[in-house]
Amino acid sequence: MSMTRDTPTPDTSPIPVIVQRGRKDVRATLAVRSFRWVFVSMLVGSIGAWVSRIALDWLILELTGSVAAVGLAVTFQFAPILLFGLWGGSLSDRFPRLRVIRIANGTAAGVMIALAVLAQLDALMLWHIYAAAALGGFTAVAEGPARSALIAQVVPRERLQTAIGINAAAFHTASLGGVSASGAVLILFGAPWALSISAVLAVLSFTALTRLRAAEIPRFVRVPELGTGITAAARYAWRKPGIRWPLVLMVFVATFGMTQNVLFAAAARDVGFDTGPGGYSLYMAAGAFGALLGAVLSTRRRTVGVPVVVTGAVLFAAAMVGTAFARIDAVFVLSVVVLSLLRVMFATSAEALVQLSTNPAIRGRVSGLYLVIVAAGQTVGAVVVGAIVQTWGLSAGFLVAGGVPFVAACVVVAVTVRTWGLRGIRLRVRRVRSRTP
Q1: How far apart are the first and last CA of the chain?
Q2: Cβ-based neighbours of 421, under 8 Å, separated by 6 or more
Q3: CA 52 to CA 197: how far, in whole Å?
Q4: pLDDT tens-digit profile of 277-312?
């Protein structure tokens, strides 16, 4: 790969990774023992998290009868990520990442056990749920960046794109399974038993992490020149094109494009197709199916680089804009599948490029920056897009949600082609042997 400006070192360049297609590469990635246990822990933990989320939302409604009270629980959960997410990345660069993940995961399991016991004793109160949501947010602050950085640490570079796709597929599979399981348990046995099942799954997730062997995890060399603070990570990310451009695009995609829940809810009301709760469930299911399909397809992608990420952003934004013109419910559902598929394919390619372009010694802080951008964008975007839909209608909401990222992606194309020499990039297979900042 050749570039005209800002030529990075092997460990930090936005290297297009050539991998084998199909099931063979997935099997080879899952054959990495350390990754396999991280994957199992994430899958089981995600199912448990979805089960508990649905059960707790239902309990809040039973305790208060207020939808706003449910929203407040979400605020308690995301506030720590927005306020302290960057410091969470610093933890995973200063301390062993496996240890950070185990402590965070074990704390989360303890919180779930406490909630389950209180619920079974009929002693669960609203403030208990809010406190658990806040503690869950703080554990996510520590665990999120550390887990992302650990995956990039245990998986060979040529398998990282597949590993991220596998993780995304597991997450969306867990969302489908967790929501379905929680609904069934709530109907048959009630919220206390749903929380008990979630607690068991949380313990199993922690148990899977104990099967990892620290001695099998490749070590990285700490580079003093990269600094230890958050400011150093921000400067590092900005001067590396393979990190800068995915993060810039993610700001716009997360803020405007990742607002499907708001748009789907509006589509089910009189401002859209007026299909009611059943329609909303259908749109959410269609979105989850599309996201799962996109994650599976991501495991088969042959290359990752700035052109792939920018193309993904353009296609996703175009799909959002196209959905604004859907006038038939069936067409809208099909559009939801397509835009969800493209959203996940963009997100997995952006995350893979950021990970591949980052020196291992600073990967935790850069991962923290990435997670904060996603969380902050979704938090702000839900309010902005919701206000647009309320004022100008559903079509206007989709036009803005897709139009703003589309313009941003076009600007990135213009800037990179003109100043970075994007036309000069050539793909070729090469093995990286040196490790420098």
Answers
A1: 18
A2: 3, 4, 5
A3: 8
A4: 778 778 878 888 898 899 888 887 777 888 999 999
Sequence-separated (6 or more) residues with CB below 8 Å from residue 163: 29, 35, 151, 155
State the Cα–Cα distance between residues 103 and 308, nearest whole angstrom: 36
pLDDT digit string (tens) for 116-133? 999 999 999 999 999 999
**What DSSP designation does 216 have?**
G
What pTM was estimated for this model as a whole?
Answer: 0.79
Find out whether 356 and 15 touch, Cβ atoms under 8 Å.
yes
With 0-12 / 13-18 / 19 or more C-beta atoms within 10 angstroms meaning exposed / middle / buried, residue 75 is middle
Buried b or exposed e, range 200-238, using 16+ CB within 10 angstroms:
bbbbbbbebbeebeeeeeeebeeeeebbeebeebeebbe
Q: 231: which 2 tokens? A: 């400011």
Mapping DSSP to helix (H, G, I), strand (E, B) and coil, where does residue 5 land? coil
From the list 196, 34, 236, 202, the residue with the least C-alpha distance to 115 is: 196
Can you tell me whether residue 167 is helix, strand or coil?
A: helix
Nearest to 91 by CA among 156, 42, 154, 139: 139
Report the distance separating Cα 266 and Cα 138, nearest Å: 31
The separation between CA 278 and the C-alpha centre of its own chain, rounded to angstroms, equals 27
Query: Mind listing the domains of the chain with CATH numbers?
Result: 1-21+227-432 (1.20.1250.20), 32-216 (1.20.1250.20)
